[in-house]
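Ticket #4471: structure export looks truncated?
Reporter: QA, pipeline team
Priority: medium

Steps to reproduce: submit the single chain below to the structure queue and open the exported record.
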Amino acid sequence: IFLQLVKKRKITMNCRFGTGRCWYGPWPCNWIIIPLYFTVFCVILPICCYNCYFSIYYIQKLHLGGVSPGKYARKINDERILQAESFFSERNHDAILLQRANNNITMVIGIVTMKRIGEMKDGEEYHPRYLLQTVAGILQETLPRATRVLICNVEADPSSHTDAVFLSPLVTVVSRYGKRGVTTPPRNLQDKEREDYIFCLNRSLTFNSTYVLLLEDDVLIIPGALDVLDYVLNTKTDDRHPRSTTAAKTIAKLFTPRYLQRDFYTAKPSRIVRNLLELLSIGLLGGSLLRIVHIFLRESRESRRLVDRCFIASVVCCILAALAISRPHLLELRRISRQFYMNLEANDCCTQAILYSRDIAKDIVAHFQNGLVPDWYPKDVALDYLVKTFGVTAVSVEPNLFTHIGMYSALHE
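Actual output as written to the record:
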């Protein structure tokens, strides 16, 4: 744009290469690079990235409109609750037929849930109703006939979890505590959380499905995620033999906290190498495009080499821009097509959304029940311990197929 404006004004001047040529043709490349860097880092990125949380240009006041983060999060959560209620008010009984019509189950989607209540500053209770949102998001997807949804109500008093009771006519709901289950939960909330998770994984296995997708109740599915997941299972679980033994010994984490997806924010060597390759690819692609545009905009036909100082400066510019935007936001560009999703070595964290093969799920349940995991480990640490100890491969699918909407932990009384 800068060059075109100058070109239209037909500014010419004498220089050491001769007279009558446009000044931006033979002059040093610095006169092109300075406007480029200024435009990218002082104009374009501040305008585009003020609402990107992990970007260096993030401005909370502009993004949240001056509202506190807590109020803003509750506002968004209330909007999702209204959308979920609207969906279920228009829902017919097709979901019941979907859950009970097919005995050949390929995948069970298990959801571990308990009642969560938050307390606001004025002392009032806030009911986030995560389960209602999670199930509404899943049922709005085009579920295959061979998919079953299972809700594991692990509330000490199952009837007090009103959303689970409300959803029981639409999907299968099982309770761990109460008349038909354990009478009293463990006193230690960390032990309870771990045992509840294994309970739901074990109950999901009773359907004898090929896969178990185990979710916590405060994750929201990304539209089209199940289609992407099916593609990943068939093409990227193992490059040569998608249904091989290697695939059977793999668990896939479908959600990774975005702060762990930042550039080089990991201790995994393979992820660090992948980050370097991503940045280099962005630099080479962006630098090549900028250099080609520069060549075609030049009036002078001299120095039309693709690789020169302008190209190097453009590559550096694109790499610095990628670092300024931050990797979690750049990953969103991969949602353009399911072919752009990728598998990476998983970080040692989090159990919000994990896909298990049947054999791996059985082994994990057996290891927990046989006391092969230290009692003091939280469930995510215990799962990572099993992965490392028994040779299971843990991968993460990126970009995330689920988002974490939880503000209130089940571990906090």
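Status: closed, not a bug. The export was complete when the record was re-opened. Leaving a note from the reviewer for reference: The first strand starts at residue 12 and ends at 15.
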